[in-house]
Amino acid sequence: MTIHYVDGYKMNALGLSTLLKMGCLCIRESIDINGIKYVVNERLGEGGFSCVDLVEQTSTKKKFALKRITCHSIEDQKIANQEIMYYKKLKHPNIIQLIDACIKGSADIVVQTTSEAYLLLPYYKRGTLHDYLTVRQSSTNYLDIREVLRLFLDICEAVKYLHNYSPEAIAHRDIKVANVCLTDNMDPILMDLGSCTTAKVQICGVQDAQKLQDLAAERCSMTYRAPELFHVESYCVIDQRTDIWSLGCLLYALLYFKSPYDIIYERGDSVNLAVLSGNIFFPDNTPFPQELHDIITFILKVNSAERPFIEDVIDRVTNFKRQFEFAV
């Protein structure tokens, strides 16, 4: 006998048919993760490789975010497993924590079967920093400088944890306002570890360069992507300072609601050329001091060798914060 789950309750085919005839049935998908059942309430978002649903545990009614990754090949499944591994080993108050995970099915491109990875994560009802900034932008309601500095420094601490991870530094590779959740207390939580990787990568030849460039095009958001990932040199070393570039774009967004290159993209101009030019436009009419603009230009160095490491960024911002508070 087939058992269906309706709003978390078991129901056989006869009961299901009866409710359908009555026209009073709202069927919600039920998912089992390691023996615990959840029902899907709504879709929160979709990306190129995954989607995120709001789910509810049937026994406690507690809500969670469920990331679902469809794997079409063994390689896809390996990437999903790697993401789960990063979630499990990274423990920091400003990095999202994995609650549970499993992979169901078997991915095989030859016989055209897929598997699905389920990653159960905390649900932050405030949404993302992108959501928060979008609402404020609609009324040109700039953040207070103290709030800008608090949010940015907390995000920097999460990045510092990644970059100083032992035994090997980790780069996030997709830092952006849409990948920062906000808690009820407005604390920033860095999320989406699907792009995380070993920070230092030695590129030895055209094939290595093209492979990394293609991967960056897939997994690193264009308007936050570091210049060295747009055109990867055939013989070079890529390191964690790809994240520093993204942090510079994020700090700009904290001031003016969007990355400086979101504006270029929306105009239909070449983000690639704009990034490589090194030119950053700051509004003439601004409530923010020149020192904050100077910090952004200090971070957004096109040549990665001239770009600061995370400790330098934190020191520079902390010093400005100290001076600002003293002046006030």
From TrEMBL:
User: Which Gene3D superfamilies did the record assign?
Assistant: Transferase(Phosphotransferase) domain 1 (1.10.510.10)
**Keywords, comma-separated and alphabetical:** ATP-binding, Kinase, Nucleotide-binding, Serine/threonine-protein kinase, Transferase
GO function term, MF aspect, one: protein serine/threonine kinase activity
The EC number on file is 2.7.11.1
Q: Which SMART domains does this one have?
A: S_TKc (SM00220)
Q: Name one GO cellular component term.
A: Golgi apparatus
Enzyme class, broadest EC rank? transferase
Does the UniProt entry include the keyword ATP-binding? yes
What residues does the Protein kinase domain cover?
A: 38-320
Q: Catalytic activity annotated for this protein?
A: L-threonyl-[protein] + ATP = O-phospho-L-threonyl-[protein] + ADP + H(+); L-seryl-[protein] + ATP = O-phospho-L-seryl-[protein] + ADP + H(+)
Q: Which InterPro entries match?
A: Kinase-like_dom_sf, Prot_kinase_dom, Ser/Thr-specific_kinases, Ser/Thr_kinase_AS
Matches recorded under PANTHER family: SERINE/THREONINE-PROTEIN KINASE 16, SERINE_THREONINE-PROTEIN KINASE 16
Its recorded name reads: non-specific serine/threonine protein kinase
Biological source species: Sitophilus oryzae (Rice weevil)
